[in-house]
């Protein structure tokens, strides 16, 4: 198959137990824009919230499914163990360190991770997050922070950075990343866990902060039991629907179990699991989030794709109201 390379991260989807607290944290403290308030298309009784840059450009979306009865996460293996968010430069991390202290957010000290300044922190449910500096980025460009955010634009989050996968057998995942998905292995760096193998870095497309997967092998951990504060899946960018349909055919030829083509309205998708059980999605860059709401009012009302609109009355009756009007 004649593919264009995957372009980098598209979005990361995680689990929250409380949509209201989640909305408050990610918009009022992290300063992201809620660009879409919709429902999980596979279970319309729960919210699916999309936070991003000013208009939800591909590569900037951090999304959450609300599962109110989700238990706590028991961290471990076979997981997406860290989600990183890009900020413009090293100086921005000093701003964030002070901001986290102001809001009493659990954080680590500023450190260096694979050559970049970084600041690890946790949200109110223990979601494992890290800000990374884009100061020396030579790869995929970031997005544009919303100018009505409580965080000044010069310090704002500009998109998703590397995701870390923690697995018991790194070679199995590495094989899929390189031989199936077209990533290239570029370097390693020391694991923060003593006596563990180095963490391996893979990149795709233009590379850089927004197009990396970091692969950590840990044979000493139990399998993660996901819940609130865990990550559900990571999605990677495909340029167009035409390209995505090539991927559908390619995975069929490889006899890799997958979802086939999935219509998500805001983008088109394809899902499959790599051998350590982590769910990957390939998602198109478009159409985007302005097909059913204007740029000025993104995320303010419950948006439903046309094929769910006929169920609006039933959906709104089941779902707890969430005020996101600005």
Automatic annotation (TrEMBL):
This is Ring-cleaving dioxygenase. It holds the Pfam family Glyoxalase. The keyword DNA repair does not apply. Keywords: Dioxygenase, Oxidoreductase. PANTHER family: RING-CLEAVING DIOXYGENASE MHQA-RELATED, RING-CLEAVING DIOXYGENASE MHQE-RELATED. Gene3D superfamilies: 2,3-Dihydroxybiphenyl 1,2-Dioxygenase, domain 1. One of its GO terms (molecular function) is dioxygenase activity. It comes from the Bacteria. Residues 8-134, 159-285 form the VOC domain.
